[in-house]
Amino acid sequence: MSILLSSISQGLLWSIMAIGVYLTFRILDIADLTAEGSFPLGAAICASLIAYGVSPLWSTAAALLGGMLAGTVSGLLHTKLKIPALLTGILTMTGLYSINLRIMGKANITLLGKETLMRIMQAYGLTNRTAVLVVGAIASALVILILYLFFNTEIGLAIRSTGDNEAMSEANGIHTNTMKIIGYMLSNGLIALSGALIAQNNSYADIGMGIGTIVIGLASVIIGEVLFRNLSFVKRLGTIVIGSIVYRLIIDLVLQLGVDPQDIKLFSALILAIALSTPLLKKKRKKDPLQFKNRWKKGVN
């Protein structure tokens, strides 16, 4: 029960990052590695401001804006300078490493003894785990509600149309480059917001906390898609939250089995590989169950 509650509370905080990854990966059909830089950017901005005595709420909002700015840079590099999406993410991620160090002034900032959103909740009599659960639930619910409303506006529909068929969207007068920049901005803003919340939960921000972020985000998205298929947009966002919780539960169970924490990145990559291959395996099995079984026994996929 303790592991389950921990996985749910952690999964809610990480799900905001996964939703950000979903916006570029599935809505815009772009592989954006900026996430590895914007996630610690949000943590760095939030932790630095809290350390200077700024309100946790305003610090979290500043982290969101910082992430949106980073996304705007990636969007401009990709659309205006015509740099491939993969290289754009690598360039921004590399530049953000130095910027994050400048913001923090050192590689690590502790928030021990400082007021955070979780400690504000604890002041109302909640335990630490319950406070994380409440903050994560409120934040993820607000994100899903705002995205649901936004993606039903004219601009939101134009972004979805750009990702579905860019040529057709341009033919219908949609400024696809502008829509991509907005998508980048929203995605990295959410990723930075998640970084800010994780930093407050961990009571520190570290320059290396963004390593493997994109794998965690993709794993959460794919797990949600494997468990639930053919859903509407808002329901899909909900399944990403579930996917994030399932992912954290798997990681927590692996750690409980005595696996060395330094091997956890390897397990993260394995989980993503399994999740990515599951739809293809299910399709083959559904197409010809007997033939699939025989080929599987022979080690042929």
Q: What does this entry look like structurally?
A:
The protein has 301 residues and is mainly α. The protein is built from 13 helices and 2 strands. The protein has helices at residues 2-27, 35-51, 56-79, 85-104, 117-122, 128-150, 154-164, 166-171, 176-202, 213-227, 233-256, 264-287, 289-297, and strands at residues 108-110, 204-206. α1 (2-27) runs parallel beside α6. The two termini are 38 Å apart.
Q: How do you describe this structure in short?
A:
By secondary structure, the protein is mostly helical. It has helices at 2-27, 35-51, 56-79, 85-104, 117-122, 128-150, 154-164, 166-171, 176-202, 213-227, 233-256, 264-287, 289-297; strands spanning 108-110, 204-206. The relative contact order is 0.18.
Number of helices: 13
What is the string of SSEs from the N terminus onward?
HHHHEHHHHHEHHHH
**Helix/strand class:** mainly alpha
What is the 3D shape? Answer: globular
The termini sit apart by 38 Å
Find the count of extended strands (DSSP E, 2+ residues). Answer: 2
Average pLDDT for all residues: 88
| Helix fraction bin | over 70%
Main sheet: strand order: 1-2
Give the low-confidence spans. none
Largest sheet: 2 strands, antiparallel
Q: In angstroms, what is the radius of gyration?
A: 20 Å
Strand content: under 5%
What are the SSEs and their pairings?
Layout: H1 2-27, H2 35-51, H3 56-79, H4 85-104, E1 108-110, H5 117-122, H6 128-150, H7 154-164, H8 166-171, H9 176-202, E2 204-206, H10 213-227, H11 233-256, H12 264-287, H13 289-297
